[in-house]
Amino acid sequence: xxxDCLLCRCAEADTDICGAKEDxxxxxxxxxxxxxxxxxxxxxxxxxxxxxxxxxxxxxxxxQAMMTVCFVCGKIGATVACLGIGCDRRFHxxxxxxxxxxxxxxxxxxxxxWEHRPRQQKLEVPEDTNCLxxxxxxxxxxxxxxxxxxxxxxxxxxxxxxxxxxxxxxxxCFQCPxxxxxxxxxxxxxxxGIRIPVRQASWEDNNPYADLYERHGSCNARxxxxxxxxxxxxxxxxxxxxLCCSCAAVGxxxxxxxxxxxxxxxxxxESCAGLGTRKCRSTRLLLx
Length: 288
Description:
Blueprint: H1 15-18, E1 21-24, E2 27-30, H2 31-36, H3 55-65, E3 80-81, E4 90-91, E5 102-103, E6 111-112, E7 146-148, E8 156-158, H4 159-173, H5 183-191, E9 241-243, E10 251-253, H6 270-273, E11 283-284
Antiparallel strand pairs: 1-2, 3-4, 5-6, 7-8, 9-10, 9-11
């Protein structure tokens, strides 16, 4: 059974905004619903891995929220308070985007309503400019939904689009899609409420490009004479394994292709030899 988060009361909230669900004894809460809850004061430091929340404190914060109303959806249970001076607006974390709110995903996890949120420098979108990510049209100036790179000022994109890119790229690869600035760009996006997870890019998960880094390691001669078979190789001698000096995708043992004993020997596979490729010194497989 899928349980609601006790703090935002939403079972299907966007995890890009609310984070993963965590269990505290008999209750379930989203990670960032905890961090942004105004009535919750964790023990430990501001660092995420050192924050300590207690079951009774979470219950108390949820009870306090029963007396507050979300200014976006009008329902009770709003735990996130705007930090604007004199502002008493509160909202549920999943309602932040709909309400034009900015939530800063770094300690001390501050939040601002539409009136008090930080804003980018006011710039006009040039004519016929589309979002660099989805290629759809943009509004005529920087707004909550339309953002621009603070460095080059030529890269325009939707807030939702750049948030999606940040989640896929992670802190190690997230950068301006046009000028490729990382440091200033990431700082600006964080201040404007874009969540940038501290992890490697999602396309690096499970090492999908591992095969590209593997070197060819077998003999492709029509008849392999090596006693240890096509995969066998020695650092020198008749069973030294050479790779084609042009493509490095085909190999042969010295003996299997009647190569001489000189260290200057070169070898090129039949496919490359007929393509007019330049002869070069042989590429050898380095043995561990």
